[in-house]
Design a protein that fits this description.
There is one protein chain. Helices cover about 20% and strands about 35% of the residues. The protein is α/β, with parallel strands linked by helices. The strands form six sheets. Strands 14, 15, 17, 18, 20, 22, 24 and 25 form an eight-stranded parallel β-sheet that branches. It has a seven-stranded mixed β-sheet with strand order 5-4-1-6-11-8-12, with helices on both faces. Helix 3 crosses helix 5, helix 3 (about 85-90) crosses helix 6 (about 190-200) and helix 5 (about 170-180) packs across helix 6 (about 190-200).
């Protein structure tokens, strides 16, 4: 079975980090978001993946091909016209099953059981504010209606970012229908609307409950996902002779830490140098330098230099920050 991963998003809510790196390659618990998704797909037996790329496409291609022995196809979305449009670029007229999984969401679930289903199936989970999501309405276990970001919620069951379509050509036809008739929601061609077209034509859809859905679309949710994934990882960090490491943490090989306190819930990528600092609840991207700083609840992007900063709780990007 083939999987399609839409990964062309600009990641505006994660700026300035995404000014130099695509959202799907931002690190969380020691690995890019996309890497966590690949790992889970591999465990389900999927080895053919179509990635819809756009923002910093070459970085996505390089990371994928250099780190994974999968059958990759990369399709560029040159215009941001919505999730439905992006998925449509990855589909063809082949009447075979296809798995669709969003590139900025890490799901904890039984992937193998999900892809073994013989019905069209959508992962769902209850949410407090359905207006932020595509939602489904159920009757006797079958979906009767799908609505993208409803102003008046019809249900609290939100689509959790994973879909199994038994005949990819039918979804392709439904997306083409939206484009040909210029049917948009919030000025974009939505995947939810295409699935409703399929439903209107007699296709049946059921749902699978998703217990844990970790969104990586904002800096708050990225930090939350980092906390969870670190808590699930084995504690095997290198001993730092003159520093205190408080698990859970991820420290890449070769990271230099001197006279500092690191943790809990900290992810340090390769090439980082930390001197006389205290860091907790943070993600620090590669080659950053942190000196005499106190950082908490923080994202620091690659190549940043942070010096003498206290209680910083904002996103940094390729910056030199010094407290005078």
């Amino acid at each position: 079975m083939r999987a399609i991963i839409p990964a062309a998003g600009v990641g505006e809510r994660l700026r300035p980090l995404t000014l130099t790196k695509p959202k799907v390659l931002l690190p969380v618990a020691g690995k890019p978001i996309l890497g966590h998704i690949y790992d889970r797909l591999i465990r389900s037996g999927i080895d053919e993946i179509t990635v819809i790329v756009g923002h910093f496409a070459e970085q996505v291609k390089a990371y994928s091909c250099q780190n994974y022995s999968l059958k990759f196809q990369f399709v560029e979305q040159t215009e941001r016209r919505g999730l439905g449009h992006a998925v449509g670029l990855g589909l063809d007229e082949t009447a075979e099953p296809v798995l669709i999984i969003l590139g900025d969401t890490i799901l904890e679930m039984d992937y193998a059981a999900f892809v073994a289903q013989k019905e069209n199936i959508i992962g769902v989970m209850p949410v407090a504010d359905p207006r932020r999501f595509g939602v489904v309405l159920l009757q006797d276990g079958w979906i009767t209606r799908l609505v993208e970001k409803p102003e008046q919620p019809i249900s609290n069951l939100a689509i959790a970012g994973i879909y199994l379509i038994q005949d990819g050509s039918k979804l392709k036809s439904a997306i083409n229908h939206l484009i040909e008739h210029d049917i948009r929601t919030k000025n974009e061609y939505q995947l939810t609307d295409a699935l409703q077209v399929m439903l209107n034509k007699g296709e049946r859809f059921t749902t699978a409950p998703i217990e844990h859905c970790y969104d990586c679309g904002t800096w708050e949710t990225l930090l939350e996902t980092n906390r969870y994934l670190l808590s699930q990882s084995p504690d095997s960090q290198p001993i730092q002779r003159d520093s205190c490491i408080i698990p859970p943490v991820y420290i890449a090989p070769g990271v230099e830490i001197k006279q500092s306190v690191v943790g809990p819930n900290v992810s340090l990528s390769q090439g980082i140098k930390v001197y006389q600092s205290i860091i907790s609840d943070a993600i620090v991207d590669e080659n950053a330098v942190i000196k005499r700083a106190i950082l908490e609840h923080t994202l620091i992007s690659a190549n940043s230099v942070i010096e003498g900063t206290q209680n910083r709780s904002e996103v940094g990007n390729n910056l030199h920050s010094k407290l005078s």
